[in-house]
Amino acid sequence: MNIKSLLLGSAAALAAVSGAHAADAIVAAEPEPLEYVRICDAYGAGYFFIPGTETCLKIGGKVRTEGEWFSAYNPNTHFGTLWHTRAELQLQTATDTEYGPLKTNTEIRWDWQEGNATATNLLHASISLGGFLVGKEDSQFNVFTGYAGDVINDDVVYDGPYELNQITYNYDAGNGFTAVISVEDSNSGAGATGANGEDSHNHYAPDVVAGAGFKSGAWSFKVVGGYDSIVEEGAIKARVDADFGAFSAFLMGGWNTDGDKLNKYAGSNGGGDAAGIGWGDWAVWGGVGVPVNDKLKWNLQLAYTDSKIFAATTNVKWNPVKNLLIEPEVSYTNWDSIKEDQWAGILRFQRSF
């Protein structure tokens, strides 16, 4: 056998072996198409499309830790330092519809207190569409007027209820005029009582809140009223805000339809000996905020009631870097009707995202 025959024979053998094993060759799978997260800026900063959907999602929250000395709400609380830590997670969604954005708001709060006391709370959970909102949010008696001042202890003098279920309609004319009407949970389930201990068993009528406001330039005015269907009394608040650039200020007054009774909208935030002391016939709040620079702001709030509660709070809000807040605050409360007073302080650290 010559060299040429040997080479041809070897090539034929190799071809035969290759053909026999061709079916066993490993073929790489086609890669799945990769869908990148798309920014959704139609509803504000932070929203992005959930992959594969037309729903936009925003994730936010905060982590907070603070030391507290005494309590501005209770003259009988005399602790040295109470350390409190909180985490909150907020999920907001929005989808465009023929009736406007369909939105949800969900917020969960976890608290850890000294002494291993823990708590979990579904703070907010609501659905909104076309101006209507249904679910759990703070009472519109507070939300519509913008709560009180930019201080931690802003409601030592009670300014209204917070978390409750509601059906609300908000109207915005687009020219500065706004209005709200809300049917709110009266908390009349088994064992519930009114603000003065009224029996609410088999009581099914809801509470009602209604308000209107107008904003023009640096000035805004809002008025809101709430009716407590269990107590069958209510309250009205009116508020004026002004922003002068170098500082902002507000003045808010409240009137109780029966100063001898508490109701959900003119109640009491006091503890200990101060428990049950409400507005009387009226209450007033006022405050000022002064931005020192883009990282530092000073705030002051004062409040006084017909029942002779005086509350004063001042703080400094310092943001050394974006989304980090360091906030020392000092409060003084005097309950003249029981001849007691209290100094209190808070040092808060908060990271928002």
- CATH architectural label: Beta Barrel
Estimated radius of gyration: 30 Å
Q: What would you give as the CATH superfamily?
A: Porin
Distance between the termini: 83 Å
Q: Could you say which structural class the secondary elements and strand pairing correspond to? A: mainly beta
Largest sheet: 16 strands, antiparallel, barrel
Which stretches are poorly predicted, pLDDT < 50 over at least 5 residues? 13-23
The portion of residues assigned to helices is under 10%
What best-fitting shape do the alpha-carbon axes yield? globular
Q: Which strand order do you get reading across the main beta sheet? A: 2-3-4-5-6-7-8-9-10-11-12-13-14-15-16-17
CATH topology (fold) name: Porin
Beta-strand residue fraction: over 45%
Average pLDDT over all residues: 90
- Total DSSP E strands: 17
Instruction: Tell me the number of structural domains.
Output: 1
Count of discrete alpha- or pi-helical segments spanning 4 or more residues? 2
Reading the helices and strands in chain order gives HEEEEEEHEEEEEEEEEEE
Return the CATH class.
Mainly Beta
